[in-house]
Design a protein that fits this description.
Helices cover 7% and strands 23% of the residues. The strands form two sheets. The protein has a two-stranded antiparallel ribbon with strand order 1-2. The protein is mostly beta strands. The protein is globular and about 40 Å long. The chain has one domain. Bound molecules: zinc ion. Residues 13, 15-16, 18, 35, 37-38, 40 line the site of zinc ion.
């Protein structure tokens, strides 16, 4: 059996607040991303992750802690 890991990045438009997702291609700080709903030109300012919570899943979860780096 083969197992694959997928990274799924979620974006929220600064203007219309709609959400969309992109798989596997990691956003870069300062990258320009156009909203698929309203066309607004957004700039990636930071990437929130819960990787520390996932690594320590027996002690905590992403549901009861803030994203990494906050
Ligand atoms: Zn938008």
């Amino acid at each position: 059996m083969k197992v694959s890991l997928e990274f799924l990045y979620h974006f929220r438009c600064d203007r219309c607040t709609q959400w969309w997702s992109r798989a596997d291609i990691e956003p870069q700080l300062g990258e320009i991303v156009y909203c698929p709903y309203c066309g607004h030109e957004n700039t990636v300012e930071g990437i929130q992750t819960f990787r520390d919570a996932a690594r320590n899943a027996t002690k905590s979860s992403c549901l009861d802690r803030k994203p990494d780096g906050e």
